[in-house]
Design a protein that fits this description.
Helix content: 40-55%
Distance between the termini: 45 Å
Radius of gyration: 19 Å
Number of strands: 10
Strand order of the largest sheet: 1-2-3-4-5-7-10
């Protein structure tokens, strides 16, 4: 099923990433199905740019991918001596200083961080393979709707690496430490049924119903007042770092702001 976003004039369309905006909904699409949407530094820069280009009217961001696979993960060309044209190879990066290597990885991570901004709700629509960096990109979003053919896997450890694109924190938060460790160190596939049962995915649907299910979820999010959604998201995001009593205080403060705004007394 084609996405309505495909009929819109792109705000951004380069390096395997297309951004379209339709009023309150933005759609970020991975557009290299021939390579199963394999990822590269250029793609990561485009994803980060998409985040910077979001208009203030956007409330929901949908992340989707063309083709049979959401993303097969890091393009294996990264592991060759020559790497990508115009980019330092991973071998070159390893030979650099600690500060340079840290800064480079931090720049890569920017593609994965903006999806949890408090002013938006991000929804990943995931079909087929979501491997390594693809898995971490899906984990970067607030919510995940998956097709019944989805196969998540974290393959970095089997390559002698670690997941470093912001995926470890949300993975542990969703499925717990023990299951997250087992998923990462074995590199095994997580199917749609397990993803839903463990909280990794919010909903699983047949492949041809994926776009429709995501549209329905976006519409449900948009039905609630924007400021209430923003306050609720911030409240829930911070809950894991607060004690029970600290969360009670945060709830009271957030509710006081909402009541004042509704009464027209907000600052």
């Amino acid at each position: 099923m084609a996405s309505p976003a495909q009929d819109l004039v792109p705000v951004l369309d380069k390096d395997g990433v297309r951004l379209t905006v339709d009023d309150s909904i933005a759609t970020v699409t991975l557009t290299n199905p021939a390579k199963r949407n394999a990822q590269s530094p250029a793609l990561w820069r485009a994803l980060a740019e998409a985040g910077r280009l979001l208009p203030g009217s956007v409330r929901v961001v949908v992340l989707r991918a063309e083709g049979k696979s959401f993303s097969a993960g890091l393009d294996r060309q990264a592991f060759t001596p020559e790497g990508f044209d115009g980019e330092p190879s991973f071998i070159d990066l390893a030979r650099g200083g600690d500060a340079e290597l840290d800064a480079t990885i931090a720049a890569y991570q920017e593609a994965f961080t903006w999806w949890r901004r408090s002013d938006i709700v991000s929804v990943a629509a995931v079909q087929g393979h979501a491997i390594g960096a693809g898995f971490q990109l899906a984990l970067a979003c607030d919510l995940r709707v998956v097709a019944d053919d989805v196969q998540f896997a974290m393959r970095e450890t089997s390559l002698g690496l670690v997941p470093d694109l912001t995926g470890t924190h949300p993975l542990v938060g969703l499925v717990g430490y023990a299951r997250a460790l087992e998923i990462c160190v074995t590199g095994r596939f997580v199917t749609a049924e397990e993803a839903v049962s463990t909280g990794l995915a919010n909903l699983a649907v047949p492949r041809d119903e994926l776009d429709g299910a995501v549209r329905d979820l976006a519409a449900a999010v948009l039905a609630a007042p924007r400021d209430a959604v923003i306050e609720t998201k911030a409240l829930l995001r911070g809950a894991q770092d607060r004690t029970y009593d600290e969360q009670r205080v945060a709830e009271r403060a957030a509710q006081a702001r909402r009541l004042r705004d509704l009464a027209g007394l907000g600052e």
